[in-house]
Amino acid sequence: MERGNLSVNELVLVGVGGILGAGFFLASGIAIHTAGPIVLLDYGISAFIMSEVFCALSEMIVANPVDGSFRVYAEEALGDIGGFLSGWVYWTAGVFIMSSEVTASAIFAKFWFPNVPLWIFALIYSVMVLCVNALGTKNFGTIESWFSTIKISALFIITIVGILTLLGFFGSKSEIGVKNYFIHGGLAPNGIKGFLGALLMSLIPFGGVEVTAMTASKTKKPKKYVPIARKYIVLFLSTLYLSSIAVLLGVIPWYEVSTKESPFIKLLSFTHIPYIDSIMNFVILTAALTTMNGAMYGVTQVMYSLGKGRFAPTFLSKVTKRDVPIYALLFSSVGLLIAVILSYILPKDVYEYITSATGFIQFFNWIIILYTFIKYRPILRDKNHEYFECQKHSFPLRPWFTIILIIAVLLSTLVVPKQAIGFFGGLILLIIILLLYFIAKKLDLFDKW
């Protein structure tokens, strides 16, 4: 695979683009309505978890910048079962993420064209993402960088508008202010159940650090650029998420936040700018498309790595002149096909059904990454005397503590009926992947592939 394509700025923007998606603009409303103002603590915990996972990935990437990234590390540290599980669990999660994001994009497009069937937009955006990923890594990085700039700028503008609203430039001062944190049932109006019920929805917007890991091996100087990119990505997202939610809660009482549309649309409505709802809808659509684009890149690279590492047919590791694993790309597009079909069959409920099954699988893979890090770090340090340490203190307590936090987040979904569907759905998919591993092992498919 070709190296040295991406600059540190592109890596930062690709990382932010892969993480900042429709999940924040939409799921934030559900999280706020579920927990109330204490949702800020949910987002703080989520930022910490993401930072720790990213930190573990950074150490491994700098020490061993290979194609396939965390899947290769899991195989080397945990054996065949680690490499197989990490790759296929991430691929499955990525397929579901793509499906949910392409469906969300179609829903946003119906804002302007309500009479056009949902599946048509799903099909159009699926073809678009396939074409972008077929262009190669450099073009992927450039396109993601532009769209990431739009999303970051939009969220920054939203925060500024919120601050100006709090200062009285827009809206009525009597209805806004810090008092909104306390006068409507206190900081935790729905108690511990509300706090726990919002944990998954606050963590989902931080998902996607794996895409950065996949692209990091394509940077000019991984040892220099990856630590820098990690710091900026964590700082950007944590600051933007927490500040925008904090401002939103001061302007709009938590119980008035809609769970059916982005709460930021209502926030911007205070400005009375013409067509502000269409402008915001375009930004959210951009967020969904770039997240889907990043997910497609990530699952394609993992499928390529699985084919290269004996855990999938070898033809999936073949690449084009543009350095694109074309067969892995086409195979990974099955998720988009599923989304198009479901958009045709279940146009009203498809987004909720797909999204609820994503969280468990995605964050279970974070547990695999952290456990791999615990086992892999001593091996890497023995091989590399100039080993880069992101976690200089409290190892292995920090990764173990983060694993416990992720397990708590996954179990917290059981208090919310709709999220519980995702928990059990994800558990079933995980069991299926495990069964496929033992079947492939028994049939000696790893050697035959």
Automatic annotation (TrEMBL):
Subcellular location, principal: membrane
One Pfam match: AA_permease
Keyword Transport attached: yes
Subcellular location: Membrane
Membrane-crossing residue ranges in chain numbering: 12-32, 38-57, 77-98, 118-136, 148-171, 191-211, 232-255, 275-304, 324-347, 353-374, 395-415, 421-440
Domain of life of the organism encoding this protein: Bacteria
GO biological process, one term: amino acid transport
Record keywords: Amino-acid transport, Membrane, Transmembrane, Transmembrane helix, Transport
Keyword Ion transport: no
GO cellular component terms given for this protein: membrane
Domain spans labelled Amino acid permease/ SLC12A: 11-439
Topology class, membrane: Multi-pass membrane protein
Official protein name in the record: Amino acid permease-associated region
Higher taxonomy: Bacteria, Bacillati, Bacillota, Clostridia, Thermoanaerobacterales
